Amino acid sequence: MSDQNNPFMKPTRRQALGLMALGASGLVLSGMPGMGKALAAQPKTIKGQLAVGFSQEPTVFNPHMPHIEVDEGIHFSIFDTLFSVDPEGKFVAALAAEVPTVENGGISADGLSWKVKLRDDVKWHDGKPFTAEDVKFTIELLVDPNFRSWRKTGHELVRDLTVVSPTEITWRMEKPFAPYPSILASTFITPKHILGAEADKNTAAFNNAPVGTGPFKWSERVAGDHILLEANSDYFGEGPYVEKLIYKYVPDLNVMYTQFKTGDIDVVGLQWITPDHYDEAKALEGKAVNVVPGSTIESFTFNMERPQFKDPAVREALYHAIDKQSIIDALYYGLPSPTESYVPQQSFYFNPDLPKHEYDIEKAKKLLDDAGWAPGTDGIRAKDGVKLSFTCSTTAGNHIREQVQQYMQQSFKDLGVEMTISNLPPAVMWGDYWMLSKFDTVIVGLDFLTGSDPDTSDYFRSNSSPAKGGAGQNTWQFANTEVDDLLTKGGEIFVPEERKAVYLKIQEIMRKELPFLPLFQYATVRGHKQGVENVVPNVNVRIDTWNVATWRWA
């Protein structure tokens, strides 16, 4: 992907203001885009099936409960948002009849009053009509104190939600919040008549047999093996074009690649083809294989509530003990780009002036010596009765990450630090173990931004830690009042050039505090069978299946 084709490279005021089009920008966002125009011109024929491979098992089917990227692969198949975001970063009407803007009267000039018009031809999978009541229910559910919500950011500012008619809803914002359009673009709407009827939304039957408005209907789940979805022939949008969509769970990445080679998998999804297979994969007959820059950042993450990690000298010393470049060259075949930030390097908001990582074992030793972490008789450093000993976890079956762990384990041992490898199956690893901060350290890849918006309140705000009763993904339990204040300030600014300074400063603080050690920005090897059409990368979403409705066989 060239710089010119990357939506992060040249953010327009349109993209950065979201839907607001405030002040001097004078720009409006398009409504329905030309997504898959060539496909749309053809008769809608539903035929065949597609098998998509995931190395992590989707387990969370209510899109509003704490979940990870792989779960959204299912969410995009079953549910819809009011509007979505395309690969160019433009908002696209979905359940909404049009994208609300200042120009069409959907949003007031100050960004506080919203009016959203909805389609009148949408039905839930059980045949019931979709209405504004479902939108109201969804937004209220996300801020319900009795519900285990994955995201309250932005939604907690909504006031006076009013259903004007079945096809129109209004609300006001307590204060302007620039990231809210991007948040809405990733907020799937759920059915009031089903989920709303459940006494406890956290344990609802819906959570294991979801009903949506999307292109595919829930059919079956065989835990540990696959999820089967069937075409929704009454879908209001483009597609679907295949009768059955199968998500296969293949935890061993070598096995997943083998199944792609043999044709058992039509599309390789998360976590794709590992770099060590790239040279062979690109020469496979009948396969389309490409390297795709991603917005995901790989990191070595700390649980900041563990006593050994409360000392910043420890975190800094461990960073100096990691030979990032050698890991990238030897294990990832030089494909990813080393980074110091959680922001993709192509982003308008990326800070290029952060201190560069330096691999230096002697400097690491001195940091620990000066901080009072002295080696014991067993060679492991300790201070005030706390040993520099911890576990490191990641997804079992990811053989490259397992090699990275072994590499780090030896480097840390030379430093007088004991790291024990304790990997888990994906369904366990990314469940409560991750979301409720039950780990010591983790190697993980995360998309920190919401689309192209730089807000990271869900990850860095002090009250976004599920382990402390918050809603969000601050699983390292990071707390910093300056970052909290900056996130609040950044959310109230709508002009990109003015917002930028705020997010440059947040990156500086995160680089200094190091609640996670940034390793590299992903460059992923994607693959699908030739003849599968419209598998299009989109850095503004967290999963490949964002447009699965339009996937089809040629």
From TrEMBL:
<dbReference type="InterPro" id="IPR000914">
    <property type="entry name" value="SBP_5_dom"/>
</dbReference>
<comment type="similarity">
    <text>Belongs to the bacterial solute-binding protein 5 family.</text>
</comment>
<dbReference type="InterPro" id="IPR030678">
    <property type="entry name" value="Peptide/Ni-bd"/>
</dbReference>
<protein>
    <submittedName>
        <fullName>Peptide ABC transporter substrate-binding protein</fullName>
    </submittedName>
</protein>
<keyword id="KW-0732">Signal</keyword>
<dbReference type="InterPro" id="IPR006311">
    <property type="entry name" value="TAT_signal"/>
</dbReference>
<dbReference type="InterPro" id="IPR039424">
    <property type="entry name" value="SBP_5"/>
</dbReference>
<dbReference type="Pfam" id="PF00496">
    <property type="entry name" value="SBP_bac_5"/>
</dbReference>
<feature type="domain" description="Solute-binding protein family 5">
    <location>
        <begin position="100"/>
        <end position="464"/>
    </location>
</feature>
